[in-house]
Amino acid sequence: MRASxxxxxxxxxxxxxxxxxxxxxxxxxxxxxxxxxxxxxVGKPGSGWQDDLRADYQMSLVExxxxxxxxxxxAARAALAPTDVEGFIAWFEALKQTGxxxxxxxxxxxxxxxxxxxxxxxxQQEVAGEAGFDDLVAMTQVKMPTRAKLExxxxxxxxxxxxxxxxxxxPMLDQLAKAMDLEPTIEGTVAPSLAxxxxxxxxxxTRRYAYHAVGALGVVELTAPWRAEKVCEGLRRxxxxxxxxxxxxxxxxxxxxxxxxxxxxxxxxxxxxxDCARYIAEGALMRLEAGRRCFEAYRAALWA
Length: 304
Known about the structure:
The chain is mainly alpha-helical.
């Protein structure tokens, strides 16, 4: 094969890549979601690989602009995060109460008031936007320092049911979707839910955002138990039985996961490189802000 046959000219990006109001449009988030589904799926070699690379190049630019704009929205608050270890851990843990979207009234309403069909709609949005915590952790741990890497491995092993298929978290969510006859689609999902998943995939799949991924996944572990408990209460109230196990598990297990994440991932990373605290803080705030927008959109649809 001649070397010249491998050469191709990178496409010139269309300017502007994103319009002023495009960041959270249905069209953009669906494009990113479809691209993420393709690029993370198991594939096979084919003659169209150069076309795929051209598309990946273009979408990587679009994703990059989207993420950088998201960073701008929380930059000032993230800059307030301390860079000393004790101060940063305290700041991070306080996000459980002070972070965007915390204690949102949607969740008590789901626990106490929502009908079965309203719970179905909510869960269909959540399942469609689910990026797969196990895969995100697996991608994030690549080339991390040993102590952080070991805790990420322990977290991943829990997500994988410690080697038992019945204990795997992903299939538990699939079982709930099947039990409630959910049919999640990208086109049927509100843009904020797609955006949340797109942000997490961008962090985990792009190494320049590795610290952002650490912050985003860590803050999920920190803040998820209260929401999971409320969803579990709602599912129990509307008659969902064993299939609610996914939320029942995360209402308790994530408490221990959060403590270990803060001690064994955040602490050694910030000790070794205080500058990374800024990026961990940005990732946490971007994930929480994305969640806040989801809850707002869900309430707008469910309480209309």
